[in-house]
Amino acid sequence: MSLLKRPEPLRDEVRSILRERVLTGELAPGEDINESELAEQLGVSRTPLREALLRLEHEGLVGSRQGHGFYVWPLDPHEALDLYEVAGALEAFGLRTVGRIPEEQIERLRSLDSRLRNARRDPARLARLGLRWHETLVEDVHHGPLREALQLVWSRLQRYLLYESEYAVANGTDDLAHVLREHEGIEAALEAGDLESAAALAEEHRVGGYSLLHRWLEEAAAEA
Q1: pTM of the predicted model, to two decimals?
Q2: For domain 77-223, which architecture applies?
Q3: pLDDT, tens digit (0-9, with 9 covering 90-100), for 104-134
Q4: What's 109-159 look like in SS3?
Q5: Residue 82: which region, alpha, beta or left (left: phi > 0; alpha: psi -120 to 50)?
Q6: Is the CATH number of domain 10-72 3.30.200.20?
Q7: pLDDT in tens, 165-204
Q8: CATH 1.10.10.10 residue ranges in the chain?
């Protein structure tokens, strides 16, 4: 029986399902993708499946080897650092392109902080809410190429955010408290209309988030 719905274009629906499996770790980093098995499981032919995988390859979520098919892109500390740095730079640049941030937008950021506090034992929810906070931070950015770049970086970063959240939950709540204090600093700067300070804090906050993930990656490598 097919797991798919309609009328969304088939390749897009297949891509959405596979993307979610990659981002949640159901398809594990480095895992080979069995196209025949997946096509049968989803109830589709190999053509829309291959089209979906090619799009995910463009997003940097899967890779391919000539003659050996597709695989889930492995986690890599160097890629992670690059993504955190680029995300921080793009989000900071985005803030510098907008006028004063509306009060209701700042209130939505604070509401997301409250939800993050309540999700402190749920890594998957923490990762989703954390990404939504950053999306809300720059939601008024209307620079087309910048938004496209942000979407691509956020997509690739999302896997790492899940593991960052898992590490934070496993090692207590101090890390989350630190993240929320940084959020509050950015929100205070936005409320004061100081976009330059908010942008600098946002970039520093993004790059600082890599330290959590780096600890997790180091420990995982040591155990391997």
Answers
A1: 0.82
A2: Up-down Bundle (1.20)
A3: 999 999 999 999 999 988 888 888 999 999 9
A4: HHHHHHHHHHCCCCHHHHHHHHHHHHHHHCCCCCCHHHHHHHHHHHHHHHH
A5: alpha
A6: no
A7: 877 777 766 778 888 999 999 999 999 999 999 999 999 9
A8: 10-72
